[in-house]
Design goal:
- The strands form 8 sheets. The chain has a 9-stranded antiparallel sheet, with helices on both faces. A 6-stranded antiparallel sheet has the order 24-23-29-36-35-32, with no helix packed on it. Strands 4-5-7-6-10 form a 5-stranded mixed sheet.
- The chain is built from 13 helices and 38 strands.
- The protein is 24% helix and 27% strand.
């Protein structure tokens, strides 16, 4: 310790990293963490009763409130009292975070879970002012706002740079994180959550994951003090050389050499032994998060302020289970509908909502599978834990839809019975005006009712409205204010089906439309015109070719081309990547692919005209490419609105090697340099590559409901309800850039990052199977703000909510 230039204090934060399903079955992990709290209580009792007086100063931080919640569910009354007293005394501290989350959770879900620790703290007279996370490397901008809204003032971040990187270009540094509202959260941008173990803070739990030096360090070593002395001395010396401004540093420590490790009172033996040897130069003490942050704020050094998003490097696990991620997102969206249709919880109870939220949160938590899921995908633990993980999404969806059924039934909904009325209620559950198509369905045995045709009556006006019949359904256009509801009635009608041939229409008997008419036929044209090379409405003209796919997307209202002239691939063209070698994953770093990656783009091979009517027309574009045995785009072009819905349907081959699937989004609003790209991150509006903390991820980000290009002339909005990962950086292998390293003249070329299995430990190894992912693209000259544009993404993704009602149900209007 002689070469150190200052006296040091090390704050040790003792916790257990909560990793649900990485090391054991999820339910077993739950049992562990409940017992960890019991162990921490036992340690504090032993200290109080004098049995372990030498452990005085022991403090336990509950990394996640999930563990506390589980403990309280089964604790005895005595244990609850003991726990509350330990929290009040500061021997045990609550973290304001619920679990270590990915960015899948929206703001509503984050608020629901972040309020839990705060509410419990209030109930026992202890304000929860600090929170910590571990093993995640970023947060949606709205995450910080959610913490502040729950009363949390400080966030301790323990990053993990496996395929990731820390923000700001340096660790062990504080900053004020300014949220979109202008409030500030004090963040400590920390190091890995096992740093304390590698510095020797815990007996028989050392290791060399972060510090790679000359020492042989299995968990249990015979030269513990030698390793601890050398590593702490070197670490603090390096901080001095780096002009680290403080004379203290925090480290986190686990009681065992594993994730999901128990509390360990013997850490105090190590600390006491150290302080006896080196305490005059380097003092070590256990601390709570709150104590540590109070010390930080007492320092005379100015703390910088940074505003913007902090994209998470580890949110990409969602791409390894794309179908269940889609189900999760739908469940989260349906939950919002339930809350807005039943705002006072008169129909669906708070307890029912809690269970929906709990299931959804367990899916959005950061652990994506057992630790051998890639190198042993057949292992029973891999299969078992994968099914449990995916069940969270399925259960959340099931419960959310059941709750929505309950609400609709309570609001006049009818179930199957003879003589059921052909009446429907349509509601806009979103927060802004919604004009779009809505489909009303009936049962197959009712088809005979409409064998001669159908009429749709808007009961608010009594007028017959335009419609387009489908199979067991009819589609109409509805325009509803936020929260507004309308009732429609269906009735059979006799519709003329008379047809004849045409002398001027150049369409052969094979029905392949590949020749333009030479003369005007005088016939009444449909609103949507489609052939083998294009589809066109009064608002948009979309053209494609074999080599380029969709190469033109003309906005007929402005005349602007809405596909960028520097695009590498056509709109929604699939791009497939595979890196040869199952074991290639470990050396990929932050590229998510190898240097020898094989990249292929889809080639258009077939066009099929599907249907056409007064509301919309549709075509299928079929592509071929390696790794995907079937890939088709279904374009649904609206006849009365400047909107196109796109469905991507595919069959993915099962491939063990690391691979990625992207869909190209080469769009622009047509406003050139005047347009701005906006996305939403947990309720916060973000300009990617602009509204970001320095040193953060540029390559991809996790978005909520879509993206928008906005200018004073209007906006192009793209709803992405099923696939949350948006690729912004180049697909090419190479040195990756962090925010502030990019040049200002580079405009991101966007792709949906739909699927990936590249991670070498716990991603799902195979992506094989059938999928459908949906998108909606619209343009409007009346939407010129980011809030309205992203709001339109919400309305398009959620759609209008329709359900069948009885004869005695009166129209509800707000």
């Amino acid at each position: 310790m002689e070469k150190l230039g200052r006296k040091w204090r090390i704050f040790v934060i003792h916790h257990s990293h909560t990793d649900i399903g990485y090391t054991r079955r999820q339910e077993r992990i739950e049992q562990f963490h409940v017992d960890f709290i019991r162990q921490a209580l036992q340690i504090t009792k032993q200290i109080e009763q004098g049995q372990k007086a030498e452990w005085k100063g022991f403090k336990w931080t509950c990394e996640t409130f999930w563990a506390v919640e589980k403990f309280l569910e089964e604790a005895t009354e005595e244990e609850k009292r003991d726990f509350a007293e330990a929290v009040r005394s500061g021997d045990i501290e609550l973290s304001g975070t619920y679990l270590n989350m990915t960015e899948l959770a929206d703001y509503d879900l984050l608020q629901a879970i972040h309020s839990k620790a705060a509410e419990y703290g209030r109930s026992i007279g202890r304000h929860v002012d600090s929170a910590m996370t571990a093993d995640i490397n970023g947060y949606s901008w709205g995450y910080g706002q959610s913490l502040l809204d729950s009363g949390v003032q400080h966030l301790f971040s323990c990053i993990h740079t496996h395929h990731g990187m820390f923000a700001l270009g340096k660790k062990q540094t504080p900053f004020w994180w300014e949220t979109p509202s202008g409030e500030k959260l004090l963040v400590w941008n920390g190091d890995h959550y096992f740093l304390g173990n590698e510095l020797g803070m815990c007996p028989d739990a050392v290791g060399s994951y972060i510090i790679r030096d000359e020492f042989h360090t299995p968990a249990i070593v015979g030269n513990h003090d030698e390793i601890m002395d050398a590593r702490i001395d070197r670490y603090l010396s390096l901080l001095e050389q780096e002009n680290y401004p403080y004379d203290f540093v925090p480290v986190t420590v686990s009681g065992l050499a594993t994730d999901n490790g128990s509390p360990n009172g013997a850490i105090m033996d190590v600390i006491n032994r150290w302080n006896a040897r080196h305490g005059e130069q380097v003092q070590i003490r256990m601390a709570t998060l709150s104590e540590f942050f109070q010390h930080v704020k007492s320092q005379p050094i100015d703390i910088p302020v940074h505003a913007g998003d902090w994209p998470d490097w580890w949110t990409d696990g969602a791409g390894s289970t794309p179908m269940h991620t889609q189900i999760f997102k739908d469940g989260q969206r349906v939950l919002r509908k339930v809350k807005r249709l039943d705002p006072e919880q008169r129909i669906v109870s708070r307890r029912e909502l809690d269970e929906i939220e709990r299931q959804l949160v367990m899916y959005a938590e950061h652990t994506w599978g057992f630790h051998t899921s890639v190198n042993q995908p057949w292992h029973f633990n891999v299969q078992m834990l994968e099914v449990r993980k995916l069940a969270y999404a399925a259960n959340g969806s099931r419960l959310a839809h059941s709750a929505l059924d309950k609400v609709r039934n309570a609001k006049g909904g009818t179930l199957l019975h003879p003589g059921r009325a052909l009446r429907y209620r349509v509601a806009n559950t979103e927060l802004q005006h919604s004009r779009q198509l809505v489909e009303m369905e009936w049962e197959g045995f009712e088809n005979e009712t409409f064998k001669h045709g159908i009429e749709v009556i808007d009961e608010s006006t009594g007028l017959v409205v335009p419609h387009q019949p489908g199979y067991q359904s009819v589609t109409v256009e509805a325009s509803l204010a936020p929260g507004e509801q309308k009732a429609y009635r269906l009735r059979p009608a006799k519709v003329s089906k008379e047809k004849t041939t045409n002398n001027y229409r150049l369409l052969a008997t094979d029905n392949v439309d590949d020749v333009d008419d030479m003369f005007s036929s005088g016939r009444t044209e449909r609103a949507v015109i489609a052939n083998q090379f294009s589809i066109e409405s009064p608002f948009v003209r979309i053209c494609w070719s074999e080599e380029e796919g969709i190469h033109s997307w003309i906005n007929k209202e402005t005349g602007e081309e809405q596909i960028r002239d520097d695009s590498n691939h056509g709109a929604f063209t699939p791009v497939y990547e595979v890196t040869p070698g199952v074991s290639a994953r470990g050396s990929m770093g932050r590229n998510r692919k190898g240097m020898n990656v094989r990249r292929s783009a889809g080639r258009l091979v077939k066009v099929k005209l599907l249907e056409n009517g007064p509301m919309f027309g549709s075509v299928e574009l079929q592509f071929e490419l390696p790794g995907i045995s079937y890939y088709s785009l279904f374009l649904k072009v609206f006849a009365t609105i400047n909107r196109v819905d796109v469905a991507v349907r595919l069959h993915k081959d099962s491939v063990w090697e690391p691979e990625n699937v992207y869909f190209s989004l080469p769009f622009t609003s047509g406003a050139g340099s005047e347009e701005t790209l906006w996305i939403e991150k947990a309720g916060a509006l973000v300009r990617p590559w602009v509204d970001q903390i320095p040193g953060t991820l540029l390559d991809f980000t996790c978005i909520q409901e879509g993206l928008a290009y906005v200018s004073d002339k209007g906006s192009l909005t793209l709803a992405t309800p099923d696939t949350p990962l948006l690729q912004l950086g180049t697909l090419e292998y190479g040195k990756r850039l962090l925010h502030t390293q990019q040049t200002e003249d580079i405009k991101p070329m966007l792709y949906i990052w739909a699927m990936t299995n590249y991670w070498e430990t716990n991603f799902k190894a195979t992506l094989g199977g059938f999928y459908e992912f949906r998108y909606s693209l619209a343009w409007s000259d009346s939407i010129t703000s980011a809030a309205e544009a992203i709001g339109q993404c919400h309305t398009m993704g959620a759609g209008l909510t329709a359900w069948r009602i009885g004869e005695d149900e009166q129209d509800e209007r707000d």
